[in-house]
Description:
By secondary structure, this protein is of the alpha+beta class. It contains 3 helices and 4 strands, in the order βαββαβα. It has a 4-stranded antiparallel sheet with strand order 2-3-1-4. It is globular and about 45 Å long. The protein starts with a strand and ends in a 7-residue tail after the last helix.
Amino acid sequence: MSVVALLSVAPVIEDSMASDVADAVAALDDFDVTYETNPMGTVIEADDIDTLLAAVGAAHKAVDADRVSTFLKVDDKRTTDQRAREKVEAVEAELGREPKGE
């Protein structure tokens, strides 16, 4: 089984959020998850939902602000084991190229 999620954690402020986002991402290192940050969030992968949710909770708590906004989208495949990279590779195969434009 594999669980893949898109996570975005940020303080609700007008200034730069980079430091707070870095704190949230660093909190993931304490868990058995893999992750990759992109401009819109962080893709997290875990073997089970409990591990993923514990990591998300820690990331949320790591942002020290008066107000924190967290967005989480979860794909919990319970009958197959498809990793995040395999999802991208399937789109690449259909396109016949990398799924990005310049």
